[in-house]
Design goal:
Rossmann fold, formyl-coa transferase, domain 3, six-stranded parallel beta sheet, 18 helices, elongated
Length: 411
């Protein structure tokens, strides 16, 4: 399968950076994937059974389609961290690396014999990024936490619920592990920042720890939720599909059973929308003359828009709105994403050869840096596929030594 620029041989702005990933599930592996996408050499240390995500979601022959993406641009090395020889191999890798990212519960890596002091004694320049549920200190630091817990405590799950009174079902989740991914993004930013602090002119020359909590990663994106409460004692409530401060901006049904987002929330946009829906005098209605009025009367306004949208198929609604340059979009399914011409034109959908699955559509690299050569060098590896390569090529172990370690279950 042709993968275009991904096979160019260039590796991105982080070329020359070596990162060790001792992570599982989502947060730390997502951080490392982002760094690998931008050219870093990522060595993922796994147990003999591999990262559990290898079998999550739709799979073929035990290999998940998600893993093809989640493990891309990484070398997989299996090491038994419970063994002294295994830990020594990790420390040897630490001595030759720039950064390490992990997402165990605080202190667990230390209890395994790989605490920060020991690793930095081997390499004072090492940047160590810790991702955990609640952070490395504080009264809740020992609690376990996954992305869903971070989303709950950070306030996101409260707002992703249906509007009050609509249903008594549990508050809905976003649909992906957004809390984990946010933490991974912040960890990647923290690693790059710590490397700058180490290596920039006037830098310290030393590594430093990076501490990312799932709860705090979610909290940091919550816009005005906390300041509004502190100043006005106002608790922002879930509003379903609407934006509570502006209207119209919601999802509207169409004749073919789809939904389309329409965001006509400025005066010129609203005027044009009224023309499109055959209501040119609607802006003269006292209820809808300005944004505060439209927000106060949003139920009535949305009913008027819905009466128009349900008379046409989604594609017809989209075409009518595009003709007047009114922001809109159908709500995409995976099939819609895969067919999107804009994603394909910008290389955000890339067909990659996977040794088990065949052609797999991967999301592209974000941020896009077209002059850097960042790309997808390979899909997720098999468990331990690169163990021999790393131990012989990087740690100068002989083939006989590697064979012995494998025979004894160390790697």
């Amino acid at each position: 399968m042709d993968v275009g620029a991904d096979s160019s041989g260039t590796s991105g702005p982080l070329d020359g950076l070596r990162v060790i990933e001792i992570g599982h599930f989502v947060a730390a592996p997502f951080c490392a994937r982002l760094l690998g996408d931008l050219g870093a050499e990522v060595i993922k240390i796994e147990p003999m059974t591999g990262d559990p995500v290898r079998t999550w979601g739709k799979a073929r022959d035990g290999r998940s389609a998600w893993w093809s993406v989640h493990g891309r641009n990484k070398r997989s090395v299996t090491i038994d961290l419970k063994s002294a020889e295994g830990r020594e191999l990790v420390l040897d890798l630490v001595a030759k690396s720039d950064a390490l990212v992990e997402n165990f519960r605080p202190g667990q890596l230390g209890r395994m014999g790989l605490n920060d002091d020991l690793m930095r004694a081997r390499n004072p320049q090492l940047v160590i990024a810790h991702i955990s549920g609640f952070g490395q200190d504080g009264p809740d630091s020992g609690r376990s936490g996954f992305g869903a817990i971070g989303e709950a405590i950070g306030g996101l799950r409260y707002l992703t619920n249906h509007a009050a009174g609509d249903t008594d079902l549990p508050p809905v989740r976003v649909g992906v592990s957004i809390g984990d991914s946010l933490a991974g993004i912040y960890a990647a930013l923290g690693i790059v920042s710590a490397l700058w602090a180490r290596d920039s002119p006037g830098g310290t020359g030393q590594g430093q720890p990076v501490d990312v909590a799932l709860t705090e990663a979610v909290l940091s994106i919550m816009e005005g939720v906390v300041p509004e409460y502190s100043v006005f004692q106002a608790v922002r409530e879930p509003v379903g599909a609407r934006i509570p401060t502006t209207a119209p901006s919601s999802a509207y049904p169409t004749r073919d059973g789809k939904w389309i987002i329409i965001a006509a929330n400025s005066a010129p946009l609203f005027d044009r929308l009224c023309d499109v829906i055959g209501q040119p005098d609607l802006p003269l209605d006292n209820r809808f003359r300005d944004n505060p009025g439209r927000v106060a009367n949003v139920d009535a306004l949305d009913r008027i828009i819905e009466e128009w949208s349900v008379t046409q198929d989604c594609a017809e609604v989209e075409a009518a709105l595009n003709a007047r340059n009114i922001p809109n979009s159908p709500i995409y399914s995976a099939a819609d994403i895969a067919a999107d011409a804009q994603f394909r034109a910008r290389g955000m959908l890339r067909s990659i050869d996977d040794p088990v699955l065949g052609a797999v559509l991967h999301p592209g690299v974000v941020p896009m840096m077209p002059e850097s050569g960042a790309g997808i060098r390979w899909p997720g590896r098999e468990i331990g596929e690169d163990t021999g390569f790393v131990l012989t090529g990087l740690l100068d172990r002989s083939a006989a030594q590697v064979a012995d370690l494998k025979a004894r279950g160390i790697v």
